[in-house]
Amino acid sequence: MTYHVDRFYAAVSVLAGDGHIKQRLMRAYQDNLDDITEDELPRPIKKPFSKLKRRMHRVAPLNGEGPICASVRKMSVHEASDCAASVVSLYSKIVRRTGDSQDPLPLQEDQENVPAFLVKSVS
Questions:
Q1: Domain span at residue 44?
Q2: Is the pLDDT of residue 74 over 60?
Q3: Mean pLDDT of the chain
Q4: Which of 41, 73, 103, 121 makes a 20 to 30 Å CA pair with 6?
């Protein structure tokens, strides 16, 4: 399950990055979520993920572009934003489902970069 949490986290990270929403959605889904099948996911997440997958594959590709590119190209900005929100919602559900209360962000163990006033003394 942590594999899927990592994949959705990567997709959400792309969505939060720079660029037009359609470009971010296309990259987030294509690079991180497209090869996930509904059967791999927990039951409460299967149906919403299947709906997202259908939306991302609904347009037949033209001239060498893929179905995701074609589908996102035909979406309005509002539809693309709605799909992006679905990815974030699915990520939230899958994290809650795993019961993982840890912060999914990588924590840096390097204490040399921590300012002295933030380090608690042990005496």
A1: 2-104
A2: yes
A3: 86
A4: 73
CB 26 within 8 A of CB 69: yes
* Radius of gyration for the alpha carbons in the chain, expressed in angstroms and rounded: 18
Give the model confidence (pLDDT) of 46-72 as tens digits: 999 999 999 999 999 988 899 999 999
- Name the pTM for this structure: 0.77
Neighbours of 23 (CB within 10 A): 14
* Side chain identity, residue 59: V
Return all residues near 12 (Cβ < 8 A) that are at least 6 apart: 28, 87, 88, 91
Distances (CA, A) of 106 to 32, 65, 86, 109: 18, 35, 24, 9
